[in-house]
Amino acid sequence: MTAFEPGRLARVLAELDASEGPAQALAQLVRQGLDQLPLPAHGATWQRWQALSVVAEHDLSLVKLVEGHLDALAVQAEVAPWADRVGGATWGMWAAEAPGERTRFEPMEADEVRLHGRKAWCSGAAHVSHGLLTAWSAEGRGPQLVRVAMQQPGVTVSRAAWHAVGMAASESLDLHFDNAVAHLVGDEGAYLQRPGFWQGGAGIAACWYGGALQLANALRRHVAETAPAQRQPFRCAALGEVDMSLQCTAALLREAAQWIDDHPTQDASAVALRVRLAAECSATRVLDEAGRALGATPFCRDQRFARMAADLPVFLRQSHAQRDFAALGERVAAAGEAPWAL
């Protein structure tokens, strides 16, 4: 893995063809080797999160695909480091389970299996070359990770259920498998049991944070470009609240990344839940304060602001809201001592 170069990544993003979608942008980043980032818990988690934040500030639908691609690479490196890698591939990482539905697999020879059934919420499924997903045996054992090449007769992509406005370009579509060829990756249950499950989950916070930065910078530029004598106090106050919120979340992100690097095999669930909830709260506050301070103008006349304002609330719903607060509270109560002393 190479060291993250924020300047290079920002330049490549700025040069992307705006007429192309996020899937084409992901392929371009892969061709330039910009997906070769440090793995979580390998000493440079902060650099990995910086990259996610930079991409998110540019385009949330793109970072949705980039994060899935990077997660698929990290998962395979963790649970099946001996497996052959597919050079130049673009990956989707699909582990969501629709209520009452599971993708099933039947063993064939060696590590080959056949997939059947539906998989929902598959971001980028219409365009990526390969998918890494969770499936279940006919006897109900699992989850079991499998990798599948997307360009084959047994794989069908359906847009019938996708009616999104926010995050529309991420195309989180349904997949239907009918005897599709796939291969087992790692052991049964490895996806959830590995330390990287929560380490990777914490990285979503960097995506939410990056999306909030675009809106915060729109507010900052408006205030900075207004002559001091003409600045409205309520806009300055909004910028102050945004700064405070983002600075707090950035500090927590840095601390979480360092903790993960210092404790690579420990349970990172409390750390991940805390930083995700903080980023969600911060992003929500930035969206609210920037909108109230700037009024309707950027929502109607600034294409990038308007799209981010539509995308960010949808992406934030990857959080489980009060259920995540409850899960964090359970872990704090079980820790044995208060974690808040300076």
Largest sheet: 5 strands, mixed, barrel
What are the segments in which pLDDT stays under 50 over at least 5 consecutive residues? none
Helix content: 40-55%
How many strand units?
A: 7
First and last CA, distance = 35 Å
What would the principal axes of the Cα set say about the shape?
Answer: globular
SS strand fraction: 15-25%
Q: Tell me what the CATH architecture of the largest domain is.
A: Up-down Bundle
* The CATH fourth-level homologous superfamily of the largest domain: Butyryl-CoA Dehydrogenase, subunit A, domain 3
In quaternary terms, these chains amount to single chain
List the helices and strands and how they pair.
Layout: H1 6-15, H2 22-31, H3 45-58, H4 60-79, E1 91-94, E2 104-107, E3 112-123, E4 130-137, E5 144-149, E6 155-158, E7 172-185, H5 190-193, H6 196-202, H7 204-224, H8 233-262, H9 269-294, H10 297-301, H11 303-316, H12 322-334
Parallel strand pairs: 1-4, 2-4
Antiparallel strand pairs: 2-3, 3-7, 4-5, 5-7, 6-7
Helix pairs in contact: 1-3, 2-4, 3-4, 3-7, 4-7, 6-9, 7-8, 7-9, 7-11, 8-9, 9-11, 9-12
